[in-house]
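Lab notebook, page 48
Experiment: co-folding of the full assembly
Goal: obtain a model of how the components sit together before planning crosslinking
Operator: M.T.
Materials (sequences as entered):
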Amino acid sequence: MNAKEIDATPLDGRVKGIPGNVDTFPLGSIGGKGWNLLREDLPLPVAVLRRSALARNAAWMRAFLAASGAVIAPHGKTTMSPQLFRQQIEDGAWAMTVATTQQLRICRDSGIGRVVLANQLVGRQAIAYVLDEIKRDPAFDFYCLVDSTANVERLAAAARETAPGRPLQVLLEGGMAGGRTGCRDLAAALAVASAVKAAEPHLALRGVEGFEGLIHSDSPKDDAAAVARFLDFLVEIAVACEQAALFSSDKLILSAGGSAFYDIVVERFRRAEVKREFLLVSRSGCYLTHDSKMYREAFEHIRERHPEVEKLGAGLEPAFEVWAYVQSRPESTKAILTMGKRDVSYDVDLPMPLKWFRPGAGGANAVRAVTSGHVVTGLNDQHCHMTVPEDSPLAVGDMVGFGISHPCTTFDKWQVVPLVDDDYTVVSAIRTFF
Amino acid sequence: MNAKEIDATPLDGRVKGIPGNVDTFPLGSIGGKGWNLLREDLPLPVAVLRRSALARNAAWMRAFLAASGAVIAPHGKTTMSPQLFRQQIEDGAWAMTVATTQQLRICRDSGIGRVVLANQLVGRQAIAYVLDEIKRDPAFDFYCLVDSTANVERLAAAARETAPGRPLQVLLEGGMAGGRTGCRDLAAALAVASAVKAAEPHLALRGVEGFEGLIHSDSPKDDAAAVARFLDFLVEIAVACEQAALFSSDKLILSAGGSAFYDIVVERFRRAEVKREFLLVSRSGCYLTHDSKMYREAFEHIRERHPEVEKLGAGLEPAFEVWAYVQSRPESTKAILTMGKRDVSYDVDLPMPLKWFRPGAGGANAVRAVTSGHVVTGLNDQHCHMTVPEDSPLAVGDMVGFGISHPCTTFDKWQVVPLVDDDYTVVSAIRTFF
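Observation: model returned without errors.
Model output:
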């Protein structure tokens, strides 16, 4: 799963997004084919990433981190693409974050040395794989979350038995009432931390972690306040654990951060009144591709909360597009397109038509903006229902480019995603491992 | 993509559902490993198919078709598994149905000779692939849908140019107001059929088709009536096309049918007052795995409408289960499990906890039914939120088996799905191609 292995992946029409009748070719040679989306060289639906937007988003996040003093462990679950992981590590990421041991395995096979499993480690196979990997590779720097003494005891027993030669490093997870995982109050957190302490040297408590990303109401101000309170609770846990001498002697880690509130994460954690130095680890997975709705709106709120980010450049922009054909105009105000639940996110918002193109009309300068009144009303497994104005120019055979909301659930629908230049010529492709 | 090629697929921990630290092995040897789900030999989440249920469901559908005089072209998009396609063809399926040319390509690579593209064929690459394949293999028997003269003219032009040596066979699609694709009235249908006739010998109108599966209200009786009306409309189109001599001289095809109303499809089409003999093609994709909610309820309605199906045996049963660990019990009435939007359907209903098991408690006889009050309230990308009763026995590390609603959107989340026997020992595995 180094670059060479991925470049050697054989592609043909069995892979969604690749023409049906081309000879099998290695993924790494796709950029040499001269394929262009607008010349209909790709079958639709197809998901593409705009290379220039990826590069600008990467640069923006580098600037944000440099200004904030935080490091990033981007959540790999978003893209599950070793090629993008590598780019993120080259961009200076401190680690990759994952949610499962299958995702961890992809990181390990891709040469990623430091991984945060931002999740509880449970189950015989998952625990065995992690401990074996720690034992096998002395350079492997691994972290997982704990939020219950039951889990701590299980991990301690397994570590004792496997004896990987160094402690299994854990982060104590704080949670919020009604939320996901994580200790709900200081007493519960201290009980778990004490259990970790009691399990030394098999376990080591390296820091405190939480996930604020589920906070979402109609009021951005209320959300920001709730996020800040939650982060302050994580700091309270860290301070209490420090006072009780429950952390291991290594550098303390404070980590939080989905892709919506990393500005608040940085702001609140910076003020943390712990005595020792600490590493501030944010974990956004979606900054690289951004999107056209959910994270676009979240980024607007970051701009409102912290206008100083304007100094960092133009800001994040959506890099992901999914293109489909109009296959039917069965009613004057309806179009059906060749794209469905198998091809594009639908869990947060339905896809948004951004652009359209009539094959043969020319190049990228003939791509037109979709006017208002074109609205996706539903997806079936393989179809998209769109309401259109009576006078919509869209005809059977036209191509429509959609923006997405929530990159994670679009990436996981594609095993290969071409990267395109600003003229929609395919310059390379990434492979994903879901 | 014959059985041998699929059996040779190398598996290791990079594939979801396979343990992280096993040596790479060929898929075909998985049944020899003696792995058992309840012994925690697989990492969770994992999706499994119960082999005995698959066999009983296949037998039930064979009996239903034998009793009804219909043939089936099961929709391959559901499973996208050549191994299951093969089983369906061996069970007597007349053809496979697909939704895209990538799915067609998988069928072709798997040796499927007859394929219905239950969709409009649009776009340069898709049209080129189909016509090239028809030209390349004289035995390839292909059908696609048409619902607009624009599309008919495009197909005719491409067929004229490619000259595959025989007509591109099309089925005229009827649709319903507010529905998906398909001509909304008889006049529109006849205009499209006439365009096909005018394009002979490049095109051939082989029959009439529709998809009734989107009809769904709170009233099963109203739904059944709406489905019947729609099917009668399709028959009306067929009768009119026959009277106008628009069909080609080959045997007429009448086709409809998702997985919810195939009893009505058979019933209404049988009465079709066309003069010539015709083939009645149903297209259910979901009968083989069935599910625990959406199609379970649909099947109850089939029983109510046609009590005579009781004679065919015990009826369809859910074959699909997704298992996950309890990773956290952060509140007395809440459990968080290691399964999310990446692992299980959520587009129609959230997954339903059916069974639970405490590792070490014994074998399949120690699997307990989940009691009422355990309800999934939401999924994140990689997490499941479940409300549980205060006195729920579920603890961190316990395993829970979930039923699903809508097999299509669970299959597409797994590249490999183990088949298990009634003791949850892995006996084989299928590969999918999404």
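Interpretation: Chain B is about 30% helix and 25% strand.
Next step: discuss with group before ordering constructs.
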